[in-house]
Amino acid sequence: MVAVSGSLRNASRTRRSLEIVLEGVTDAGGTGELIDLEEYMLPPLNPEDEAGDDVVAFRRSLRTSDAIVLGTPMYHGSYSGVLKNAIDHCGFDEFEGKTVGLLAVAGGSFPVTALDHLRSVCRALDAWVLPHQAAVPNSGSAFQDGQLVDDGLETRLETLGRRTVTYANIEPEPPTFESDHNEGA
């Protein structure tokens, strides 16, 4: 399983939240890897350009994983441009039929629109998006010294990790008329 951090901030609360999700993965008997987009040189997508080594490596990490958790800070009511660009470099080969968990972190109120936007994109790529999602609102006060201060919130993040493992190999839905017409990525 891979957890993709859509934040480039040094003291990223999104990254820290994904680390807690990965604790849930381990608790469920799975293994997980944190993918920090800062470690990849993913240029703004130009479909006419040949993919560089980092793009190929990033895609391979997603394609070969059993499941994916996407984590993002909320910017202007949606998910980060860094994560958007990373997803744009991917397509059905990386997402189709794959279980995807969602996490959004906000400095203010509940980041529901960021989660909704990610859910729509993943579904357009024919991923199976977990019904359980996790959000960290008011993240500035949710963490102290890198630790969550709300046990309920920590449980929700760990649950996202456990459910990602539980449903990582869920049987895909049979093809439908609509699936043959999804132009997608």
Automatic annotation (TrEMBL):
InterPro entries: Flavoprotein-like_sf, FMN_Rdtase-like_dom, NAD(P)H-dep_reductase. It comes from the Archaea. Residues 2-138 form the NADPH-dependent FMN reductase-like domain. One of its GO terms (molecular function) is FMN binding. Pfam families: FMN_red. One of its GO terms (cellular component) is cytosol. Belongs to the SsuE family. Isf subfamily. This is NADPH-dependent FMN reductase.
